[in-house]
Amino acid sequence: MPPPCCTDTSASAAVHDPVGTVTQYATRDLIGPIAYKGYDPLNDPGWATTGAPTPALYARWCRHLCGIACLRMVLLHRDGHAPDLFTLLTGARNAGAYVREPDGTIKGLIYAPFVEYTAHTHRLPAAVHGDLDLEGLVALLDAGHMVMASVFKEIRRPEHEPERRGGHLVLAIGRRGGQIIFRNPSGHTDAARKPATSLDRFGAFFGARGISLDPRHTVRRTPDPTAGRRPVASRPTTEQGEPRCMPCP
């Protein structure tokens, strides 16, 4: 049964609730050490809870799972259950949302095939927003959408000035007054995993792109997964505006 915030599709939404935080790393207490102290995720004792078949595969992919963690949060909110991270990752990879380069580099999340995957497999309406300003983000939230927003990874420490914008996906679940309410898959503290940040401060980290998802509706007709594929990666913005995928944290 969908939560009350998703049952009245005629009303504008405030904040989707409840939305539990799913982290891209298996052990939450290790996110800080992984991000700031050089801890090797290969040694994460909770690796199997992600559905990874081996510790090595978990360590290889965990830095790239922010978007997958966001998707799992939406599915848990809508359905009360969801596949584990690596099952979702396998589906997204099969759809072309991640690409392994010959040198082993992982490119992704690639937005367009990911959106096709959410619709085709999970019947979850989604749309790519390759040019999304703060006003547009707020409009989507006010219309009842959740938004996977591309931000700089250090949004978990908003008191620090960001080096760039974009490159890491968080799940914006609504707006309350002048604040964006979101869930951060790589938050290193409880507060960093479910923050409320002012519009201006969020904008300092926001890469002006994202994916909107609408858990209040269901895709009734399966789209052609290969139609109109146009990859848009979660990428930071450099001074030259060059696209460049980066793992997080």
Automatic annotation (TrEMBL):
Residues 62-184 form the Peptidase C39-like domain. InterPro entries: Peptidase_C39-like. Residues 215-249 are annotated as: Disordered. This is Peptidase C39-like domain-containing protein.
